Amino acid sequence: MTPIENQTPFSILDQDLYKFCMQQAVLEHYSDVVVNYSFINRDPSMRFSKSALSMLQRGIEKMAQVIATKDELEYLQSTCPYLSDKYIQYLASYRFNPLEEIKCSLNEKTGILDLKISGKWCQTILYEVPLLALISESYYRNVDTDWNYNGQHENIMQKGTMLAKAGCNFSEFGTRRRRDFKTQDIVMSGLAMLPADYTGRCTGTSNVYLARKYGVTPVGTVGHEWTMGVAALEGTYENGNSLALQKWYSTFKGNLGIALTDTFGTKAFFANFNHELASKYDGVRHDSGNPYDFITRVYNHYKQLGIDPSTKMVVFSDGLCPTKAIDIKKHCDRFSLKCLFGIGTNFTNDFHCASDPSVLSKAPNFVIKLLRCNEKPCVKLSDDKTKHAGDNAEVAHAQNHLTELGLF
């Protein structure tokens, strides 16, 4: 690590690729929309302290100093040609404005962190990933400090080798859930060292800074946020997936062609994923629910549309570890489906307690979700009920509405 890398946030590229891509799509289709986001801690037992809040607030204030440098913009232009010249020009003048757009406080009695983001969608969309990384690092530097880096390099080499030898193609997706930047740097330095003669390989990382540093491909698909926002703004849950997919395709012309399937449940998705869209898109991403049932469903859907399933890709990104990924690959092989695995928490937040290495150090389950677009509520109806997001009344309304239509 370089000295500057110890001072997060330090680069606009310390960000997941799909956020830049979604920012471009938002600028093209919804440049004036105002949004609200909220932090959600899915594990209330992980409580924050005053010192954690102070560290987080210092990091948030530093975001105002982060700008895209000339060489970073040139890297994006040369490496990601689907990012338009117009977008690169926008990013060149982009500035975080955290004092105006982020509100952060702590209930000292309960340890509950309250963090909200508000502003134009095109301006605030880049906050989520670096904020989650800052929140995680603040927690593990100030609250849960019973850990160290011992064995991290050896662990990632073992995991990467296990996956590659089993023929799994996989990417590192761990920015938002990393323990800190150093951990993710250790992970990528190890994965970049894997021999090239295995049948599987590490295809890249979602983190653009680390992709550049280690000479690998920055990779990404699209987030639930895009479909949630489009559905809210266009006033339709039943057609939210198809509208989001059409607008995404119009922006990227087939690049970044993996469709996310579980924003409103897979039943609603496949009802929207007609022959035209299924032909245009390279494949689909599974992010919740039973992966084995999903494989069967994807295979049957392509067959019913008259599309050869073996020409399509299925990306899996739901709580994976090497053992689970290898088992899923074997199942995909039975259906002649190509597959790829995005692994996050298991790569960048897999630790044991320093005081007792036989005990696992708890990983975070923090998210930041889109709440409203132009005051219209946004919801997510995952295939895993614990991942539902949004106002409870609106979640119930959306679920009931789709159920009445036979789509949930």
UniProtKB/TrEMBL annotation:
Molecular function GO labels: glycosyltransferase activity; nicotinate phosphoribosyltransferase activity
Gene3D superfamilies (UniProt xref): nicotinate phosphoribosyltransferase (3.20.140.10)
Pathway: Cofactor biosynthesis; NAD(+) biosynthesis; nicotinate D-ribonucleotide from nicotinate: step 1/1
Domain of life: Eukaryota
E.C. number(s) listed in UniProt: 6.3.4.21
Limits of the Nicotinate/nicotinamide phosphoribosyltransferase domain: 168-400
Keyword vocabulary terms for this entry: Glycosyltransferase, Ligase, Phosphoprotein, Pyridine nucleotide biosynthesis, Transferase
InterPro entries, per the entry: N/Namide_PRibTrfase (IPR041525), NAPRTase_N (IPR040727), Nic_PRibTrfase (IPR006406), Nic_PRibTrfase-Fam (IPR007229), Nicotinate_pribotase-like_C (IPR036068)
Catalytic activity: 5-phospho-alpha-D-ribose 1-diphosphate + nicotinate + ATP + H2O = nicotinate beta-D-ribonucleotide + ADP + phosphate + diphosphate
Ranges where the Nicotinate phosphoribosyltransferase N-terminal domain occurs: 13-136
A Pfam family reported for this protein in Swiss-Prot or TrEMBL: NAPRTase
PTM comment, free text: Transiently phosphorylated on a His residue during the reaction cycle. Phosphorylation strongly increases the affinity for substrates and increases the rate of nicotinate D-ribonucleotide production. Dephosphorylation regenerates the low-affinity form of the enzyme, leading to product release.
Enzyme class (EC, first level): ligase
GO biological process: NAD+ biosynthetic process via the salvage pathway
Cellular component aspect of the GO annotation: cytosol
UniProt-listed HAMAP family: NAPRTase
NCBIfam families registered for this protein in UniProt: NAPRTase (TIGR01514), PRK05321.1 (NF003704)
UniProt record similarity statement: Belongs to the NAPRTase family.
Role this protein plays: Catalyzes the synthesis of beta-nicotinate D-ribonucleotide from nicotinate and 5-phospho-D-ribose 1-phosphate at the expense of ATP.
Protein name from the UniProt record: Nicotinate phosphoribosyltransferase
Taxon lineage: Eukaryota, Fungi, Fungi incertae sedis, Zoopagomycota, Kickxellomycotina
